[in-house]
Amino acid sequence: FSFFKGLNGNLPVPALVTQHMPPNFTKILAQHLTKSAGLPADEAQDGELLRSGQIYVAPGDYHMQVHETDAKKKIILNQGPPENYCRPAVNPMLRSVAQLYGSNVLVVILTGMGYDGMKGGQDIVAAGGTIIAQDEKTSVVWGMPGAVASAGLCTAVLPIDELAPYVAEFMNKGM
Predict the structure, then answer these.
(1) What are the pLDDT digits (tens) for 16-53?
(2) What is the 3-state secondary structure (H, E, C) of 100-136?
């Protein structure tokens, strides 16, 4: 929550969040994000249009991806096979974001177990996008951020309290 709170309500782009959580818990996560960050957050809905300033949380048991149809960017939810034993998983989201946005992507990998996000992160970097990760010292579990950092995919690896200022500066420069 502290990451989004650190943006001080400034989110000029859509934000996609995939957290390894079961159904019902992701709805609660979205409610807590709205309260703590002062930004609108909801569980993503299949076919929903992406809007700047909105946080979209992948619903439990669904992969969240983005696609463009008729020049409109939309959320697509599916129950494809789990990846890295997870559904929702980060990799499907990152693959779709890399295809749709190319170099206009900034990915933030926060504390989490396993290595989900590493393969999708490779797609992000190959498309010219940027990845930053939470450092080991401030992570509860450094699995996911450690995987992208160890793979050499990160532009920066920072303590949790330095991530939001980095993102704000990145967005001000005009992704």
Answers:
(1) 999 999 999 999 999 999 999 989 999 999 999 999 99
(2) HHCCCCEEEECCECCCCCHHHHHHHHHCCCEEEEECC
What is the rounded CA–CA span in Å between residue 77 and residue 16?
Answer: 12
Q: Which residues of 132-149 are buried (b: 16+ CB within 10 A; e: fewer)?
A: bbbbeebbeebbbbbbbb
Q: What are phi and psi of 5, to 5 degrees?
A: -60, -35
- The reported pTM is 0.95
d(CA 26, CA 118): 22
Task: Fill in the amino acid letter for 62.
Answer: Y
Alpha helices in the chain (DSSP H): 2-5, 25-37, 90-101, 118-126, 143-150, 160-172
CA-to-CA separations, 170 to 13, 17, 50, 146, 159, in angstroms, rounded: 12, 18, 20, 22, 16
Contacts of 15 (CB under 8 A, 6+ apart): 4, 39, 54, 55, 56
Structure tokens at 98: 């890399």
**Of the candidates 172, 165, 173, the residue with the CA atom closest to the CA atom of residue 132:** 165
